[in-house]
Design a protein that fits this description.
Strand content: over 45%
Distance between the termini: 40 Å
Structural class: mainly beta
Number of strands: 11
Oligomer: single chain
Helix content: under 10%
Length: 124
């Protein structure tokens, strides 16, 4: 069982930055994928970024490439999403999620464990 708790959301002006954190607890190991997903009102959930708990490969959605960075600090059991040059279209609830498995998985439907989400609002 893995528990995830997000924090760091808020209201920011377009062009600003936020860093989301996801505190990970439970039986997590190197065999896990960790990902960030988001869902805007009236829209389907979409993948934002993903990485392996041991590092290495990363995935970014085209819409965030060059602006967002996923990282993790294994000593603190924390996953991060640094978001720069934010746009109003980045407004959404952001979720972190985890799944056990090999390779790099970015499809949300494959993830088993989810946090409660944190709201990010970008004003124009």
């Amino acid at each position: 069982q893995v528990q995830l708790v997000e924090s760091g959301g808020g209201l920011v002006q377009a062009g600003g930055s936020l860093r989301l954190s996801c505190q990970v607890s439970g039986r997590i190991s190197g065999g896990y994928n960790l990902g960030w997903f988001r869902q805007a009102p009236g829209k389907e959930r979409e993948s934002v970024a993903a990485t392996r708990w041991t590092g290495g490969s990363t995935y970014y959605a085209d819409s965030v490439k060059g602006r967002f960075t996923i990282s993790r600090d294994n000593t603190k059991n924390t996953l991060y999403l640094q978001m720069n040059s934010l746009k109003p279209e980045d407004t959404a609830i952001y979720y972190c999620a985890a799944k056990f498995g090999y390779g790099l998985e970015y499809r949300g439907s494959e993830y088993h464990y989810w946090g409660q989400g944190t709201q990010v609002t970008v004003s124009s």
